[in-house]
Amino acid sequence: GEFEKDCPTWFKIFTHCGEGLDEAVRANRWCQEFGFTNGREYLFLWTVSLLSMPHEPLPYIFFCGDQNTGKSAFHEAISLLFKNGVGYIKANVALTSPNRFNAELIQAVLCAVEELNLNPNVGAGKEAYDRIKDWVTSPTLLIHPKGKTPYHVENTTHWIHCSNNPEACPIFPGDTRIVACRVGNIPEGKMIPDRKKLMHLLEAEASIFMYYIFNTTIP
Hints:
With 219 residues, this protein is an alpha/beta fold. It has helices spanning 2-6, 8-18, 22-27, 29-34, 39-52, 73-79, 92-96, 125-137, 195-214; strands at 60-64, 88-90, 110-114, 140-143, 151-154, 158-163, 178-182. The strands form two sheets. Strands 2-3-6-1-7 form a five-stranded parallel β-sheet, covered by helices on one side. A two-stranded antiparallel ribbon has the order 4-5. Helix 2 packs across helix 5 (39-52). The protein starts with a helix and ends in a 5-residue tail after the last helix.
């Protein structure tokens, strides 16, 4: 109740983007044990871990849905919480570079992937999918800077992938690295069509949102 009142714009984004997880959260034994009942709460805890424990791995979140459903708003909102944008990157190039150049992943905490097909049966999808499988769980990353010798760094990356195509991120049986979430259409009259206005509202609520983040204990 307080979160909704103090951070109404953040609350709307987390609620909307998390609705596709509501049924799975209610059925999950861990969520039942600790009293979590919807996708908004799951995404909030995911964000708490992202920002307060960046060295801990998290599931790769795959948001799929039609155009203009607001699926990118989740990672765009969180990007506002990184000072001068440091720690937030668009990671399409790192996943698809034929030379494996990926220096942008150094100190990256939140990596956003937009409209990239990771299906291993499509084009360069297998190469990108194999990289993701490694980067989501590996404690270190092998960095390939241009013109320099590759070297290892600690892995602090966490991944959000948005696509209109529900088959752009295949999930194989038993794979617990990926959480897939369908993002539905925004109800009529609820959309904030002006992105600049949306970002302004999020920025105005960011400090109190961060208070909630750093005063939440993950079970």
